[in-house]
Automatic annotation (TrEMBL):
Residues 265-308 form the EGF-like domain. It catalyses: L-seryl-[protein] + ATP = O-phospho-L-seryl-[protein] + ADP + H(+); L-threonyl-[protein] + ATP = O-phospho-L-threonyl-[protein] + ADP + H(+). The chain crosses the membrane at residues 314-339. Residues 1-27 form the signal peptide. Gene3D superfamilies: Laminin, Transferase(Phosphotransferase) domain 1. It is found in: Membrane. One of its GO terms (biological process) is cell surface receptor signaling pathway. This is Wall associated kinase-like protein, putative. Keywords: ATP-binding, Disulfide bond, EGF-like domain, Glycoprotein, Kinase, Membrane, Nucleotide-binding, Repeat, Serine/threonine-protein kinase, Signal, Transferase, Transmembrane, Transmembrane helix. SUPFAM superfamilies: EGF/Laminin, Protein kinase-like (PK-like). PROSITE patterns: ASX_HYDROXYL (PS00010), EGF_3 (PS50026), EGF_CA (PS01187), PROTEIN_KINASE_DOM (PS50011), PROTEIN_KINASE_ST (PS00108).
Length: 645
């Protein structure tokens, strides 16, 4: 059997460019810089459509839609036949734009879809002429001498094969081929004299990958961006056998696949794609346009209604003078207000676009079918209502950056900040107050431990303080304000950066070296622990009245020792947030389970808890664990805090 690897001819203008179909698709953002605009035969081929004549690894194309010439399968004898094939992940014969045709005396043709050497689905048709020559009808392909069938969808890795019922005869040849709809007209001479062509025009359909619009964006992660639709475009998989394509949003044009660019705004006014009376009545906006009438005319400026000159009534000169002055004053004031309002709106639109608002809207639109809503864009009217027109009396804190837009909206936190919680309880602290504070400390420690140890890229918060810890109605802690946070490369433990943070919470080692590490957050958390213990702002070292009692004193001692460890001058001597979180959670577990408090289990419980965080308390530390006196505890805390500040 003679096999044949297929070369496809792309018809563009009047030039045919030879293209080798390579079975590959590449990520839209991974195209080399020199692939954006390729040329061949004087024809420019924009990304992601492209060619690769050398079958190299330059990945200059992702997919293509082409009118091509594809080889005809010819069978003249058992030793004289061809079997063309097409092997590609990105291209299929369009099931809507092509037909499969067989031509010959007593012939039949196969259209095979296969995987490697294993053919797994087949269609085709057969013709019979012997004894029916008078029924041959030129121009039609009804089954006598010529037959045709539709091509099923989703058939890839194709082979075409013509054959004859009388395989030993070489008097006439049989033919099988795919033809673009309307491109082939049957003639009886094709039976006796053979087809007048060796290749037939076909339509190759393309899409991006095997994903559809609901699954493709989920692959948009990591260092490669596998989602093909770029700025101001959307995904379309309607009427596609597999994969998807990208289309520019309404009001935008260009190449939706172009990396870092995508579709750009269409100037409907300049390109006469508007519904206004004239170009002079048109004003372009981002993704749209508006029609207007010039001063002194009424109407909306559209082609339907247009603009009309306002009628001028005949009035006495005095009335006209006063009226004209008043009108000019009103018009001037109104124009001034309109001008500034439009300027403000334009400015907001500009900020919204610059800060990625259009991209965010596009991302959210692809998740409309999602059952959960993690992100939402609020209008200014909604924010005005929620904040009582941004009443300054409702402000619980301000960040260190200044910017006009966008505003980051958090969930509503009923109980404000941890700072407010601590410093408004000075007259009502009790046993339950301490339990709540211990719970908050454990939750914050767990959050920081997650950022340091479990996030895909470690994150250093860089501004841990009680003002940045929010409490909901159940006093559940939520760490906020990541405006100063930094991502830490996986292969690094510290990064050099300009010193930034809040005095009183800043790591002294960070202030001296400008080397930011996870232990900088540990130090700041240690200050928060001291704040929870003392009820005072940083620099106060006395346990708050009302917290210390027989039930709480052991926990308070251990938290104080833990805070002192966090506040050590050298970062390498401090525990990790993971170890701190384990220690605090261990204290809470002892408090929750009554059996732990039983005298017979106290020593064993303490041993187990301290064993779980043994790396915090190392031999030779100035602070020991176990039963220590309150006076010696105060000395240790004061010394550790003084060293750390």
């Amino acid at each position: 059997m003679k096999g044949k690897h297929v070369y496809v001819l792309m018809v563009a203008a009047l030039t045919m460019v030879v293209v080798v179909l390579v079975g590959t698709t590449v990520a839209a953002d991974s195209a080399p810089n020199n692939c954006s605009h390729m040329t061949c035969g004087g024809i420019e081929i924009p990304y992601p459509f492209g060619i690769d004549l050398n079958n190299s690894s330059s990945n200059c194309f992702m997919a293509a839609e082409m009118d091509v010439l594809f080889d005809v399968s010819k069978y003249c004898s058992v030793d004289n036949y061809t079997k063309p094939t097409l092997t590609s992940d990105s291209y299929v014969f369009s099931s809507k734009e092509n037909k499969f045709v067989t031509v010959g005396y007593d012939s039949y043709g196969y259209f095979n879809s296969y995987d490697g050497e294993n053919e797994h689905s087949t269609t085709g048709c057969l013709t019979s002429v012997i004894g029916h020559e008078r029924l041959i009808n030129n121009g039609t392909c009804s089954g006598i001498g010529c037959c045709q069938v539709d091509i099923p969808p989703r058939m890839r890795y194709i082979s075409i094969q013509a054959t004859n019922f009388n395989k030993n005869s070489s008097d006439f040849c049989s033919y099988a081929f795919v033809a673009k709809n309307g491109s082939y007209s049957f003639s009886s001479t094709h039976l006796s004299q053979g087809l007048p062509f060796n290749r037939s025009p076909v339509v190759l359909d393309w899409t991006i990958e095997d994903n559809n619009c609901s699954t493709a964006p989920s692959n948009n992660m990591g260092i490669f961006n596998y989602y093909g639709c770029k700025n101001n475009s959307y995904c379309d998989d309607k009427d596609k056998d597999f994969g998807y394509r990208c289309i520019c949003n309404q009001g935008f044009e260009g190449n939706p696949y172009e990396p870092n660019i995508g579709c750009t705004d269409t100037d409907e006014c300049e390109k006469n794609k508007h519904g206004c009376k004239t170009k002079a009545n048109c004003k372009n906006t981002i993704g749209n346009y508006t029609c207007f009438c010039p001063r002194g005319q009424s109407g909306d400026g559209t082609k339907e209604r247009g603009c009309q000159t306002k009628a001028t009534p005949i009035l006495p000169l005095t009335v006209i003078g006063v009226g004209a002055t008043l009108i000019l004053l009103l018009v001037g004031t109104f124009s001034y207000l309109i001008y500034h309002k439009r300027k403000f709106i334009k400015m907001k639109e500009k900020f919204f676009e610059q800060n990625g608002g259009l991209i965010l809207k596009q991302k959210l639109s692809t998740r409309e079918d999602s059952s959960t809503e993690s992100t939402k864009i609020f209008t200014q009217d909604q924010l005005n209502k929620a904040t009582k027109d941004f009443d300054e009396n409702l402000i619980i804190g301000k960040g260190g950056f200044e910017t006009e837009v966008p505003l980051l909206v958090y969930e509503f936190v009923t109980n404000g900040t941890l700072s407010g919680f601590i410093h408004t309880q000075s007259n009502k602290v009790n046993n339950e107050t301490w339990k709540t504070r211990l719970k908050i400390a454990a939750e914050v420690a767990e959050t920081l431990s997650y950022l340091h140890s479990y996030a895909s890229i470690p994150i250093i918060h860089r501004d841990v303080k009680s003002d940045n810890i929010l409490l909901d109605r159940t006093n559940t802690a939520k760490v906020s304000d990541f405006g100063a946070s930094r991502l830490v490369p996986i292969d690094q433990t510290e990064i050099a950066t300009m010193v930034q943070g809040t005095i009183g919470y800043l790591d002294p080692e960070y202030m001296q070296t400008s080397q930011l590490t996870e232990k900088s957050d540990v130090y700041s958390f240690g200050v928060v622990l001291v704040e929870l213990l003392t009820g005072e702002k940083p620099f106060c070292f006395v346990i708050q009245d009302g917290l210390w009692n027989e039930e709480n004193k052991q926990e308070i001692k251990e938290v104080a020792v833990l805070a002192a460890k966090c506040l050590r001058l050298r970062g390498e001597e401090r525990p990790s947030m993971k170890e701190v979180a384990m220690e605090l959670e261990g204290m809470r577990l002892m408090n929750k389970h009554s059996w732990i408090k039983d005298d017979s289990n106290v020593e064993e419980s303490r041993y187990l808890l301290h064993e779980s965080s043994s790396s915090i308390y190392e031999p030779g530390d100035s602070i020991t664990h176990g039963d220590i006196g309150y006076d010696s505890l105060k000395d240790h805390v004061l010394i550790a805090l003084d060293d750390g500040r």
